[in-house]
C-alpha cells in the first residue's frame, strides 16, 4: 500500500510539476504527521526528512539510530544518517536535486495536510536561511488532497469491508436497544462487538460509537451519557470501524415507541424522510467536476425549505485511512472551511453524506451514507437506510 | 489529574508572569497536541481555543457541536460555541482579558511543547492581524517544561507502578530467552504478557519492546527481526508500559552463553560494567540546579576514557505521560538538541539514564534506569541492574 502510494505521489508531483515533497517530522509517534501512515509506515525519533521527487527519488535523512529501521521497511531507496544535525545532509541533497518548488505539509484549510508543527517549520527555515531554497517552499495540500482523495481499487475494497462490518453491528444493535437502557450501555454493547471481531473503532473510542437518545441529548460530537432511552425518543448512533487500516463512518436513526403507540408520530416520520430525500438529491447531483459547496447547498436548501433549521456542519467529508480524510469537503462557504467549499470533486473520491435536523420534542434525525464518485455520478458503497428503524 | 494540572498551570503562569496560555487545535484526535492529555482530556473537531490565564480563568471556544462534550468534562468554566468562525469570539475574549503575553504551543527544541501545526499558526495570525495581539505571542515551552517536568506525588506513584510491571515482565522474559528463538518471538512473548495484564506499551507496539540480539543487530530504534538468538550474543531489550496513563522506559542486557561456556567473556563483562559505572557516576552528580549537558558529559567521558566510542544520543530524557516527556534533557551540546543541554534540572523531574556501548563481535550493552530528582540529589525509582543476566 505504501509503495503504491509513493508511486502515486511521484505521478501527482509530475502532474502538478512540483519537484520535491518534503515530509519533515520528529518523535512522530508523539506528534504524528498524518502522512506517516500513507508514505512512511514507521516512526522516527529525531528530525527526519522524507523526500519524494517528481523524478522518482525516495530519500530519507534520519538520526543515526533510526536508520536501520527505515532501511528495514525499504520504502526509501536512499537512507542517510546523521548524528549532530540534519542541516548538512539536507542541504547536500537539496543542492543535488536543485528543486524549484519544495512542498511541505502545512495548510490552513486541509487538516490532513497540516502535519508540520510550527516549531519544525521554524527549524527548517533556519536550516534553509540564505540558501535560496527558503523561497521555494509551497504547501503540499494539493498533493495530499489528490493522494488521499483518489482511492485505488484496493482502498475501495477495504472501505467496503469496513462498511459491511459496521452495518452488521448496526443490525445487532437494533435488537439490543430498549427503553430503560442508557446511551452508555448501548455504546458498551457496540464496543464489545468491535473487540470480539478484533476490529478497531474508526475514531476515538470515547466518542465512537456516539449514541444520542431523545430531545435533550447533545446530538453530535459528545460521549454517551447515563441518559436512559425512553418511549418517544429519536435515537441516533454515529459509528465506524477501521479494518485493514481503512475506515467506515455511518449514522443510523431509530424511533422508540411509547407504550401502546402503534405508528411513528407524523413529525418524526416527516423529519426522517426529509433527511432521506436530502441525501438522495445530493447524491443525484454529485459527480466529478462540481464544487463541494454546490452539493452541500442542495441538501441544506431542501431541509430549510421544509421548515427545519440548517445543520451546523458540512454535508459530507472524505473517508479513507482516517474517518476525516482528503481535502475537498461538501460544505458551505463558511470562513471556517477556508478554500475547501471551492475544491472540485474528483473521480475516485469517497464521501460521506450526513445531513441532520432536529424534530422538536423527539430528538435528532440523522443518517450518514458513504458514496464513491465516478466519472458520471456517484455510487452508494453503503446500503442506504430508507425507513426509520422502530423499536 | 487534569484539574490538578490546570491548577498547577495557573501557578506556573503567575510565577512566570505570563497572562494567558492558549492551546489552539482542530481534529485533535488526528493531529494531537500533546497538551490535550494534560490540560484538556478530550478531543474536538473544529478549531478550538483552550485558554488558561494567570488569573485562574479557564475558557474554551469551540465549534457548536463540540460544546456539549467539553462542558460534560467540566474542566473549563466558560465554554463558548461558534458556528461560522472562531475569530469573533476569540477576539472578544482577548479584548476582555487584554493579555500582555499569549503563550502558544510551538518550540524548535522541546517536542512536547510543539503541538501547534504551522497551518494553525497561520490561521491564528490571520485572526490576530491588526489587533496588536499578534505581537504578544510567545512560546509556551517554559510553561510546558515546568508543567510536565514537575511531577506530583500521584504522578510519581503512577510511574513507579509502571516500572514495577515492567521489571516483572523482564523477570519472566529471562526464562523465555533461549538460543534459536528469534527477536520477534521474544517481542511477541512480551506483547502477550502486556495484553494479558491489560496494560498498554509505552510507545508504538512495533518498537516496544525493541529486542536486539548479537553484533549485527540495529541496536536501537528498530523493530524486532527474524534474527535468531545465538550463543555469544549480547541481547538487549528496550521496553516500557503505560499504566494509569503514565509510562516506564527501561533497558536490560543479557548474555547468551555459547555451548560449554562457563563464564561471561572478559570483553562482555568489561563493557557491561562500564555501563553500570557510567550510570552510577551520572546519578551521583544529578541534582536540582545542574545543567543537563554536565550530567551527560560525566557518563560520556567515562565511556570514552575506557576505550569505547561515545553513544550517539542523549544520556537521558524525562518520562511521564509519554515515554519522552518534559523539556530538559541530559544531552550533549549538539545542534540537534538546541537549548535543551543548557536547561537546569529541577526537583520533581523524572529522568532515564541510558548510556550504551558496543562490545565488538558480541552486541550492544545498554542499561536504562529511571531516577527522580530531589533537592539534594536523585533517587532510583527502578531497581538497578547490577549484573549482566546470563542465559
Q: Please, could you describe this protein's structure?
A:
- 2 copies of one chain form a homodimer.
- Chain A is an alpha+beta fold.
- Chain A folds into 2 domains: 2-148, Creatine Amidinohydrolase, Chain A, domain 1 (3-Layer(aba) Sandwich); 150-390, Creatinase/methionine aminopeptidase superfamily (Creatine Amidinohydrolase, Alpha-Beta Complex).
- Chain A has 10 helices and 20 strands.
- In chain A, the strands form 6 sheets. Chain A has a 6-stranded mixed beta sheet. Chain A has a 4-stranded mixed beta sheet with strand order 8-9-12-20, with helices on one face. In chain A, strands 7-10-11 form a 3-stranded antiparallel beta sheet, covered by helices on one side.
- The model of chain A has no long low-confidence stretch (mean pLDDT 94).
Q: How does the SSE layout of this entry go?
A:
The structure is a homodimer of 391-residue chains.
Chain A: H1 2-16, E1 20-25, H2 36-40, E2 48-53, E3 58-63, H3 64-73, E4 78-82, H4 87-97, E5 102-104, H5 118-128, E6 137-139, H6 141-149, H7 153-176, H8 183-196, E7 200-201, E8 210-213, E9 234-239, E10 241-243, E11 246-247, E12 250-255, H9 266-285, H10 292-305, E13 316-318, E14 325-330, E15 350-353, E16 356-359, E17 363-366, E18 369-373, E19 378-380, E20 389-390
Parallel strand pairs in A: 1-5, 3-4, 5-6, 12-20
Antiparallel strand pairs in A: 1-2, 2-3, 7-10, 8-9, 9-12, 10-11, 13-14, 15-18, 16-17, 18-19
Helix pairs in contact in A: 1-6, 7-8, 9-10
